Amino acid sequence: MAEVAAVRPGMSSRRAVAYLAITLTLLAATAVALDRWVWAPAMISTAQRVDFARRLPVPPLAPSHRDSRGRRVFDLRAQTGEHDFGSGPVRTEGYDGTYLGPTLRMTRGEQVVVHVRDDLPEATSVHWHGMRVPAAADGGPHQLIPPGRSWSASWRVDQPAATLWYHPHPHGATARQVYHGLAGLLIVDDPATTIPQLPHEYGVDDLPVIVQDKRFTDDGRLDDTSAPLAGIGLLGDTVVVNGVTGPYLPVVTRRVRLRLLNASNARTYDFGFTDGRRFALVGTDGGLLDAPADLRRIMLSPGERAELVVGVDPGQTTVLRSYPHPLGTGRLGDRFVGGDDTLDILQLRAAAILRPSPEPPRTLAPLPRATRAQAVRVREFSLNNDAINGQPMDMGRVDAAPVAGSTEIWRVVNDDGIPHNFHVHGVQFQVLTVSGAPPPPQLSGWKDTVYLPPDEPVELIMSFPRHPGPGLYMFHCHLLYHEDSGMMGQYAVTDPGADMNTQAGH
Length: 506
Hints:
This protein has five helices and 30 strands. It has helices at 13-39, 174-179, 330-336, 480-485, 500-503; strands at 54-55, 65-66, 72-84, 89-95, 104-107, 111-118, 127-129, 150-156, 162-167, 184-189, 206-214, 238-241, 247-253, 255-262, 269-273, 279-284, 287-295, 298-300, 305-311, 317-322, 343-355, 377-384, 387-388, 407-414, 420-424, 429-434, 449-452, 458-463, 473-476, 488-491. It is globular, with a radius of gyration of 24 Å.
């Protein structure tokens, strides 16, 4: 910044004016330079600039078999490889392939086993994000798989139908491994709440839409450097959906179900359609809503999911876009954390003749409402400066010990002034309030991840299921740079009157 020249006593008025003119010119030049090199480049727009030339690939359903005990068994292998996002091969990682992984599909009531082999050059783990599992099967940083070794997780599926996902969770390396491709969808079916009127033919009218943002170096490699001035880690300038750039979806039915997953490291999206059409939100992180919500936009932070039912007419084309959206960090802050960006995501192309599809029913699935009176305890959590409640992650520390079968309220606040969200392992919760007000429709269902607007407390109510065996679960910011940097804690579900350290497995 130019230093303002002082007008000395005795200086002629003409000379003083000249000094002032020079100073103002320098200040203006500095402002122009800041706008050109810092302010303007911090905003990204790909609106109407994406050539939707590649058909949306659909992750295959993972094969499985029944073992002698009747359990459904899956096998996954984490591996390195090369993947073409659209401009040539790039070094990546994936499960059973070069990028992302197959969709695991299982049914409520089944006992499942997943065998995971690590063929990466480093340790990894696999976390079943949104799944209620025993702590020993959760796949957090305590269940690392060394290179060349295998690990098995087993649990009974006991939760409503939902769109979940899986990804690595090694402390300090999660962001890098997810960014390079280790992620996949996990779908739970529940015959008791099957809704035949909803699109349900996987890969035809029921589609996974895994959204990530990437940045590429000049020589085509994945660039995983953090965004300058943002403090949230990586923000990409290129959107990838199911592993490709510029995808289009051929639509052959009057309605299509999009299972949206924000699998980005740090970016929050505000999804809507370029022609302003409305859609029915039928499900969130933990399953179906009790009734469809009629929306035009939905915001998803990293890790969140939403199930949309979108209606189309024959021959129509529309684009799913992420619009600029306030993130609560102010006009200056929002610019540098992606809040001002406009990103074209996916084109929907309807065929000239479409198979009929019914409208979503007015009621979907029973959604018992948790009440404040059920809670036996309120816990306070503050996210600030790579720590929760002032303490960075410590693998040997237990931060909370809720009792199995109990219900608690967790009051969580972002005290940092930059974007954060909050994910809790092992449970689904309901949002009671956001800054003291009832939640909007998109936060009214079962959730496991929620955005935290700065300085606006969010109250979450959750019950802790009883599982066999001791162990620890994580809670953390799901902006992966923050998680890796220490904004994470852990809790142990205990039996009444039990010693916390014994129950945690220490």
